[in-house]
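Re: [ENG-882] Designed sequences occasionally contain unexpected residues at chain ends

Forwarding the minimal case from QA. Structure tokens:
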């Protein structure tokens, strides 16, 4: 076992009875480390950086969920322990280096150690998403999947001009509707940049969105815009306004 009784649960469901058709998920909301792993050999300062979590997303996602009466499923452990938006076994699933920071506690792991992280952190989170989507399918309830993320304004010394970004793969409908609405507000919005969704680099959208053939989008917001509660609330209000509009526009 990796997680002890005193360790927090890997997944939190907020507003689980929400009536909105939108299901919100936050793959990188937390930066908790299992007690058995310490901080994987990195400093407290590094553990608070973007390499460990999507800064601002935990509070933002809860604000959006409350505003929309939407259910939110949130992952609580640091993406450095295991990245819950990467296919298990991918090089970036349990990174030995993130940006330019070496992660000593991820070097030389045995298969059993990797499997423990997948079994106790990755699987419970994705099982919770799958169970909620299956419940909605059986109830014939309309559903769209919204994955909320944030990105660092500077990566390896390169500045990023986008206020936000919409990411997608095989089904761009909802993402492009959201993209247009954000651009109409005068924002600089990336269209599948600075990242994009693929089967090799992502898990949540390909598995829970594409395979189920439900509307979906991955939203990225620049982290300096979520640096305080004022910024989080401003973006939460914006998303609470445009998400239903984009969803209704799908027809």
């Amino acid at each position: 076992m990796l997680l002890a009784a005193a360790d927090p649960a890997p997944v939190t469901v907020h507003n689980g009875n929400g009536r909105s058709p939108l299901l919100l998920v936050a793959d990188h909301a937390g930066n908790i480390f299992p007690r058995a792993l310490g901080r994987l050999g990195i400093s407290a300062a590094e553990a608070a950086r973007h390499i460990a979590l999507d800064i601002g997303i935990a509070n933002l996602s809860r604000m959006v969920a409350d505003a929309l009466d939407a259910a939110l499923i949130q992952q609580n452990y640091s993406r450095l322990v295991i990245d819950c938006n990467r296919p298990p076994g991918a090089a970036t699933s349990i990174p030995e280096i993130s940006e330019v920071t070496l992660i000593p506690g991820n070097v030389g792991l045995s298969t059993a150690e990797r499997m423990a992280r997948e079994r106790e952190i990755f699987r419970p989170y994705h099982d919770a998403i799958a169970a909620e989507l299956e419940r909605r399918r059986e109830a014939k309830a309309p559903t769209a999947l919204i994955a909320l993320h944030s990105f660092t304004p500077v990566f390896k010394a390169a500045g990023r001009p986008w206020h936000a970004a919409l990411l997608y793969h095989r089904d761009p409908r909802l993402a492009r509707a959201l993209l247009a609405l954000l651009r109409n507000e005068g924002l600089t919005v990336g269209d599948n940049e600075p990242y994009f969704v693929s089967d090799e680099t992502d898990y949540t959208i390909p598995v829970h969105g594409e395979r189920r053939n439900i509307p979906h989008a991955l939203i990225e917001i620049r982290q300096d815009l979520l640096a305080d509660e004022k910024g989080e609330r401003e973006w939460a209000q914006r998303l609470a306004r445009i998400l239903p509009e984009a969803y209704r526009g799908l027809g």
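QA comment: On inspection the terminal residues look reasonable. Helices lie at 44-47, 57-68, 111-138, 173-183, 204-210, 229-248. Proposing we downgrade this to a documentation issue.
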